[in-house]
């Protein structure tokens, strides 16, 4: 099992053009330099791992990119174009899909409702147009297809997603990001709080979506094994600064831990 898990990560892929570039981003909270002059690139088809201790600035960096926080200075380029990202809604319109630790699903709603949350498909014609009637059949069919492609088995599509396992919920959340043609999918601790087998399923799903759609991912994780299993490249944050940017093929767990703790600083 351990050997197989190891195997997943050994194929680092050649990657495509730069889809996201962050240049000299800064964000202070009072006297705290939460993000301190951070630059990095993300290429198509790349899984970029982001690691660092608590308080290192990972979430702040992600929140700047996903429009939840406004940067103090610096620049964000999407597809080479300098872009101001004003809000999380704006980020989503630009194709930045974020999956949070808590999967971001509405637990009492079923999988189709979650897949189409906030983007419900209305019925064709006047029923949809004038009465806002939702095309549940379409939504079910799409969800069914999506889950099948992603090898997620949900016994009853009409059941609230809280009846799914934690891993399945995460998978639905990741699948949703892919379904909406996210240009970039950002995962903040995707496999936290779920069982080991389920974690593996979520990581495999990330790989599958990347392989099939060439969608790049940024994945924050505390789990060094997860990072080494799926990432092509690793960014290490420490005290708001980027202290490492390494291809997985060119580094080791020891080196990355050293960068996280500052032992190698
Ligand atoms: N909204 C905020 N207000 C004040 N300080 C914040 C806020 N968000 C983050 N910080 C501070 O910024 C630093 C970086 O935090 P964060 O980005 O959450 O780190 P990480 O995600 O790596 O654990 C920490 O010192 C944290 O206390
Ligand atoms: Mg965080």
Radius of gyration: 19 Å
Bound heterogens, unique: adenosine-5'-diphosphate, magnesium ion
Structural class, please? alpha/beta
What's the helix count?
A: 10
Measured distance between first and last alpha carbons: 34 Å
- Overall mean confidence score, pLDDT: 86
| Share of residues in helices | 25-40%
Number of strands: 10
Q: Note the beta-strand portion.
A: 15-25%
Looking at this structure, what is the CATH superfamily of the domain at 2-9 and 19-106 and 182-261? P-loop containing nucleotide triphosphate hydrolases
CATH class of the domain at 2-9 and 19-106 and 182-261: Alpha Beta
C-alpha geometry: globular
Helix-strand topology string: HEEEHEEHEHHHHEHEHEEH
Could you characterize what this model shows?
By secondary structure, this protein is of the alpha/beta class. It has a domain at 2-9 and 19-106 and 182-261: P-loop containing nucleotide triphosphate hydrolases (Rossmann fold, 3-Layer(aba) Sandwich). The chain contains 10 helices and 10 strands. The strands form 2 sheets. A 6-stranded mixed sheet has the order 6-7-8-3-9-10, with helices on both faces. A 4-stranded antiparallel sheet has the order 2-1-4-5, covered by helices on one side. Strand 4 and strand 5 (81-82) form a beta hairpin. Helix 1 crosses helix 9 and helix 7 (166-179) runs parallel beside helix 8 (196-213). The protein is globular and about 60 Å long. Adenosine-5'-diphosphate binds next to strand 2 and helix 2.
